[in-house]
Specification:
alpha/beta; 5-stranded mixed sheet; globular
């Protein structure tokens, strides 16, 4: 199953894609928020079609203790809105520490701070998606 991982941010949306077997996640792109949720969701819908995705995995920013705060509630609401647009199932998945993990990996790769800002959102989406893919593989 081909899936897109979505890391929702207030300024940028990081997007990753899995391979067709649903085994490996890779960073795909970063969308700058347009100021219009409808336009942002249409851009994601276009990527779903272009990448032939069968599922969207939206990051759920839970608090470190596992509870839902305002950011998690906003992500659930946006995931529900996305589901009315994209034409494929949309689920949320715990994204705690994905941005930290992505940033550390980019630092270890020697990427400059300026370049990291342009990459971290789609790399965080790939970390999210890979974690979800691995969790599914463990359930089989």
């Amino acid at each position: 199953m081909r899936a897109l991982g979505i890391d929702l941010g207030s300024k940028r949306i990081g997007i990753a894609v899995s391979d067709r077997t649903g085994t490996i996640a890779s960073p795909l792109t970063m969308l700058q928020r347009s100021g219009s949720v409808r336009r942002d969701h249409e851009a994601i819908r276009a990527l779903v079609v272009e990448e032939e995705a069968e599922m969207l995995v939206v990051g759920l920013p839970l608090n470190m203790n596992g509870t839902s705060g305002p950011a998690a509630k906003a992500a659930v609401a946006e995931a529900e809105a996305l589901a009315t647009v994209v034409g494929v199932p949309v689920i949320t998945f715990d994204e705690r520490r994905t941005t930290v993990t992505a940033d550390r990996a980019l630092i270890e790769a020697g990427i400059s701070a300026q370049a990291r800002r342009k990459l971290v959102d789609k790399v965080a989406a790939a970390v999210l998606l890979q974690t979800w893919l691995d969790s599914r593989a463990g359930q089989r």
